[in-house]
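User: Can you predict the 3D structure for this chain?
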Amino acid sequence: LEGSAILPVAVREGDLYRSQALAFLDEWPSPKPSIDEFQDAWIKADILMVTRSFGTPSLGSVIVPVLDFVNHASWDSKNARCDLEEDGWELAAAAEIETGEEIFICYDDDADFLDIWIRYGFFDRTAETHAAEIIVKPNMVSADHPGGTYYVPREDIDVDCPLLDELYASVQAMLAPRNASEAEVLGEACR
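Assistant: Here is the predicted structure, written as structure tokens:
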């Protein structure tokens, strides 16, 4: 993770996670568990909620027995859908499902390959949406766009991205004296 935009996010999330856990421990009645015992139980409960719960508009996160064993496929590869309501849930076919065929739902229609890994701990091999991380040096773009880390979709996804256009133009101008090819410009811009 070193040098990646994920590291500061992971550190920030870890700090928030720890402060929430310690605040919860402060409210614990006597006798309190040791910090190590509490941290172990907190991590196990959090993993259970992150990997087995579903978000609902009115109830927040809920654990639904049986439904939590349905596997994930991206929105265009799923063969079932799940509707969660306050009074129950329904799992329905979204495509023809043969006897013995595995049932897949999409955990999050808006999540890309990296989101699924961060949230659920696995790589979604059915993902159609991927993001690329671009680290922009402040001197490569105008003052209108500060340097930093940006995520942009893959090249085959149509997106209007002024920052990316400006970065590309800046690299193109920088490499102009060398008569750099389009491939060299793109390579340098994405490096």
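The longest strand covers residues 80-85. The CA atoms of residues 53 and 62 lie 5 Å apart.
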